[in-house]
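REQUEST FORM: STRUCTURE PREDICTION
Request ID: SP-0412
Submitted by: Lab K.M.
Chain count: 1
Length (residues): 187
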Amino acid sequence: MKDVADNTMKAPGASDPNRRDFLLLATGAAGAVAVGGIAWPLISQMNPDASTVAAGAPVEVDLAPIGEGKAITLKWRGKPIFVRHRTAQEIADAKKDDTAALPDRQADAARVRAFDGKAQEQWIVVYGNCTHLGCVPIGFSGEYNGWYCPCHGSHYDNSGRIRKGPAPRNLDIPEFAFLSASKIRIG
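STATUS: Completed
RESULT:
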């Protein structure tokens, strides 16, 4: 026979302790997932996006394909960078002009970098923005066969020094270093 005490019903409002513990754990877990679901995108949106990180990263440039007397333009941190492989005559002209009356006096030797203790005079690396209003000058042009800004008439020599026009200073030099005789890292 069946015991009568087992068939008794629980009073309304009474709860099973195992069920109550499960509901508390399930509610806590759901709350933690909800908080994580809200916090993750909030924290993630504070990080810079991939294009911003990539734009500021150092860039390595192989100089071997740039023939003597040629130049390339690349983009770094959203700005153009001119890398120019000067000829022996261009280097001689730049050194000769060290004594000229320059608006922003700077010797050609101060605008080049060295590798293994030897100045790499054949390579000039400058930002490609005119220091007057930020226009992009045209290479191998102007009165000094350097860069010429047609917007307002600034003339730069092949060392990137201002020679004539409204620009207040020489073309800026980005932070760069030689990794080898034929490779540089900008940034």
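NOTES: The chain has a mean pLDDT of 87.
Reviewed by: T.R.
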